[in-house]
Design goal:
The protein is α/β, with parallel strands linked by helices and about 400 residues long. About 35% of the residues lie in helices and about 25% in strands. The strands form 5 sheets. Strands 16, 17, 18, 19, 20, 21 and 22 form a 7-stranded mixed sheet that branches. Strand 6 and strand 7 form a beta hairpin. The chain starts with 6 loop residues before the first strand and ends with a helix. The protein binds MU-OXO-diiron. The site of MU-OXO-diiron has 9 residues, from helix 2.
Length: about 400
C-alpha cells in the first residue's frame, strides 16, 4: 500500500490476539504499523509484534525490490513495535538503528545490545537526511513510554506519530474510528494527557497532511476532526453532553434503580450509557465516563467497602486523572449503607469534580421513597443542561 509516492505501508494485521497489552479485548484484532520511506536512502519506521517478524520482513523485502534499507528508525520500545529490531538488524547487517538515548538503554535491557557500533542517537529537533528529504525528530516522553520520539517528513508533510492517533482494530476491518480510538486512548494513553498536550505544542507549527500512527489507519482527510478529538481527550474535557451510569447489582435491586433513572433521563432527551460493570468491558465504560460530562455511580455496600467491580472501575478512573465532570452517587445497603461515602472518598483527589446534592440511598429494594429520590436526582442531573430544553449549560 502506498501512502505517498515515497512512503509504503509494510505493517501487519493481527487477528489471533486475545488481549492487547495483556488486558484489552480487541474483537477486530490489531494492526502493528510499519512504514518504509524510500529516497536516496531508505528508512524503515519501527518493527512489529514478535509473532509477525517473518510477515513484516516479507513486506519490507517486497517493497524494497532488491534494494537494502539504510536505517531502522525506532520510535517506541514497547514490544508490539520493538520485538523484531534484532531480527531486522540481523537480516540487514549494514543498516543503522536510529532512536533516542532512552530507547537504546531499553534495547540493552530487552536484547542485551544497544547497537553501539551501528546507531544514531537522536533528540528533540535532530534531523536525518535521506538525500532528497530530511526527517525531523521530536521527543514525546510518556506518549506513552518515556523513550518515544515522533518523526516529521517535511517533503511529504507526514507526521509519524508513534502510539498517538492509534486505535484498536486491524486495518482490514471497516469500523468507526472514534469509538475504538477513544477506547484505546483512554485505556492506554489516558493518564498522560498533559504529555499529549505538550506534544501538540511542540508540533503545532508543522505543516501536516498525513498522520501515520503505529496502530490503526493512516489519517489524511479532515485531520482537524481527529486533532480536535485528541485535544478534548488529552485536556480531560468532556467530548459531548451525556450521562454514563455505571453500576453493580448483586440481586437486581440496584439495577432496577438505575434502569428507572436511565429511563427518566432518556425520556427527557438525554444521551445515556448504562453499564453493568460486572458484565461489561471495563475499558468501554471507562471510555464512556471520559466521553460524557456526567457520571452516575451505583453500587452496594460490601465487606464494609464497595462491590469489587465498582472499586476497580473507580481506580481505573482516578489513575487516568478523571476530572472536570459532575458525579452522582447511588448506594444500596440492607443494614448499614456506606457505599456513597466510600466512592466519594475514592474520588477525593480528583480535580474539579462536582457532586450532585442528591445522593440516593436504597435500603435493599426500590420503593416509592427510592423513586422519589431518583426523581429528584434526575431533575438535578438534567437541571441546567441543554439535554432537553436547549437552555445553556
Ligand atoms: Fe503500541 Fe505503546 O505500544
Amino acid at each position: 500500500m502506498n501512502i505517498t509516492d515515497s512512503i509504503k505501508y509494510v505493517g501487519v494485521n493481527d487477528h489471533g490476539i486475545d488481549l492487547f497489552e495483556g488486558q484489552y479485548i480487541v474483537p477486530n484484532g490489531m494492526a502493528y504499523n510499519s512504514y518504509l520511506i524510500e529516497d536516496e536512502k531508505i528508512a524503515v519506521m519501527d518493527s512489529v509484534d514478535a509473532a509477525f517478524g517473518n510477515a513484516w520482513l516479507d513486506n519490507i523485502e517486497k517493497a524494497l525490490k532488491g534494494k537494502k534499507p539504510d536505517y531502522l528508525i525506532v520510535q517506541h520500545m514497547e514490544p508490539d513495535h520493538s520485538a523484531n529490531i534484532t531480527t531486522f538488524a540481523d537480516t540487514y547487517p549494514d543498516a543503522v538503528i536510529v532512536s533516542s538515548d532512552k530507547a537504546f538503554k531499553m534495547m540493552q535491557n530487552f536484547f542485551g545490545t544497544d547497537f553501539a557500533d551501528r546507531r544514531i542517537v537522536v533528540g528533540d529537533g535532530d534531523t536525518l537526511s535521506l538525500g532528497g528529504r530530511e526527517l525531523t525528530f521530536v521527543t514525546a516522553p510518556m506518549v506513552h513510554w518515556p523513550e518515544v520520539i515522533v518523526t516529521y517528513d517535511g517533503t511529504d508533510k507526514v507526521l509519524f506519530s508513534a502510539d498517538a492517533f492509534g486505535k484498536f482494530g486491524a486495518l482490514d476491518v471497516d469500523e468507526d474510528w472514534a469509538c475504538e480510538a477513544r477506547r484505546y486512548y483512554m485505556g492506554i494513553v489516558g493518564k498522560y494527557g498533559m504529555q499529549v498536550q505538550t506534544l501538540f505544542k511542540k508540533t503545532k507549527d508543522l505543516d501536516i497532511n498525513i498522520i501515520c500512527p503505529l496502530h490503526g489507519p493512516v489519517l489524511s482527510d479532515d485531520l482537524g476532526y481527529y486533532i480536535s478529538l485528541y485535544n478534548a481527550w488529552s485536556s480531560y474535557e468532556p467530548e459531548e453532553k451525556g450521562i454514563t451510569i455505571a453500576y453493580t447489582s448483586v440481586y437486581g435491586n440496584t439495577k432496577k434503580a438505575v434502569e428507572y433513572l436511565a429511563e427518566k433521563l432518556e425520556k427527557a432527551g438525554a444521551k445515556v450509557a448504562l453499564s453493568d460493570l460486572a458484565r461489561s468491558d471495563m475499558a468501554e465504560v471507562v471510555e464512556d465516563a471520559f466521553r460524557y460530562d456526567r457520571l452516575v455511580l451505583a453500587t452496594t455496600t460490601y465487606n464494609a467497602d464497595i462491590f469489587p467491580f465498582m472499586k476497580e472501575f473507580i481506580n481505573h478512573l482516578t489513575e487516568r486523572n478523571f476530572q472536570n465532570r459532575t458525579v452522582a452517587l447511588i448506594e444500596n445497603g440492607s443494614w448499614a449503607p456506606t457505599a456513597a461515602k466510600v466512592m466519594r472518598g475514592m474520588l477525593e483527589g480528583s480535580k474539579n469534580l462536582t457532586f450532585t446534592e442528591n445522593t440516593v440511598k436504597i435500603m435493599s429494594a426500590v420503593n416509592d421513597q427510592t423513586k422519589a429520590q431518583l426523581d429528584a436526582l434526575a431533575a438535578e442531573i438534567l437541571g441546567n443542561t441543554t439535554d432537553s430544553d436547549g437552555g445553556e449549560n
